[in-house]
Amino acid sequence: MTMRIAVIGAGAAGLVTAKVLFRAGHEVEVFDRTPDVGGVWSRTRRYPGLTTQSPKGQYSFSDHPYPRDCPEWPTGAQVQEYFAGYATASGLDPLLRLNTEVVALRPAAEGRWTVRTRDAAGEHAETEYDRVVVANGIFCEPAVPDYPGLEEFTAAGGRLCAGTEFHDTLEARGRQVLVVGYGKSACDLAVAVSGTAAGTHVIARRLLWKIPRRIAGVLNFKMLMLTRLGEALFRYVRLRGFERFLHGPGDGLRRALLNSLGSVSMRQFRLRQLKLVPSGRMEHIITTAVGLATEGFFENVTDGSITVHPDTTITRLAAGPTGPLAHLADGTVLPADLIVCATGFRQDLPFLDKDTRQGLTDTHGNFMLYRQIRPLDAPGLYFNGYNSSFMSPLNAEIAALWIAADLAGAVPLPEPAEMRRTVVDQLAFMDTATNRHHCRGAKIIPFSMHNVDEMLEDLDAQIPARIRATHWIKPVDPSAYRSVTPTLLARLTTPPTTEPQPDTAA
User: Same domain for 31 and 178?
Assistant: First the structure.
């Protein structure tokens, strides 16, 4: 049955959802408030120095490789171009409603939803859809701290902004710049502005482990971290096959492999000499956080063009005799013409009313989504992109197929009580495994392929075991899943064969 479906968001998840559902025979419209596709990679959101966390070979859809001349770690602009090319090649351009914000989403009868939008001219429209897919991303709204003294700081000429609001390094020229945070985006920004700023300071509430792009300058990190073996080094809620050995008799080997990464990072980046050794051991990487090291960051710290202030925060902003100031918790006072906050994001659904939003989450604010896709108590509503991973395009692609199959009634869902128990158990596991650093249940790192496997098992569409076996020692290749989409769509759109019945009238 053909349905009219609205997709909210034109990033990776929104685009692949639109492609799959359109090819499954549905009428699809994709809404995004920005003027271009790409989500976090939109030109309205990307900051100087932005690159992918994963190499292009893993950060891609199964049937759409990056251009050969694109570097292994594409820039933000190159990723946006990739998604724009994907949209065009997939015939999605006529389905896009860019510069159009979804301002309200209300349940209607029988699983349908009413969508209210506002275009760039401020004109409102209201349309009812049979189903809605929320693909606005877990990096939805930047979380900027509310510092005391902001008004005084701003009056003195200071500027405070989110990383996604900072687009030009020329704004940092000759100025004292503070970058708040120590994740990949903070380090990217610090390197980008350090060449023009009078001073660049990184305010790190907590030091994080950084993995080199090339370990010991030779081995690409994807050979270790983006394989099934690399994923199996971290205990999942359900152990299978070789994982039972790694987390049983082979536990010592597993821990040694992980901690060797920490040792290499210590030596390669000279962390001890720089006094930037994170607390804990590399084996506890998932319980804190990890990022790919920004090229040039530790080199710039070494030569003094970047200064890191570890284990501290900004307590208040102020105006001094010579300009705006930032007071740190350790007593340091820094001149601060520009403060860029790379302090994470809030997963927000501002278009939903309060009761509906609360019905989607548990008491801790975690999203209660079966397979990271299907709400327990919101018929007709789906989510995609809330399984954010090192290989988000692939995870989103398989999730889009899961949605198409569920729309066709082809997903063998458990009973509601069992479905709820599965969601609760998964969230409890991730709380423990990541020390609640899982973006309210919407980030599945480092369990990318576990998520893919579970969805494909639901669909009875797993790729051959021999191909999966190669991914234990080689980086996961999304193109290995290229045949899954056309095969499943053919199954969903082909009417069942009706066998002739014997004549029993006689």
Answer: no
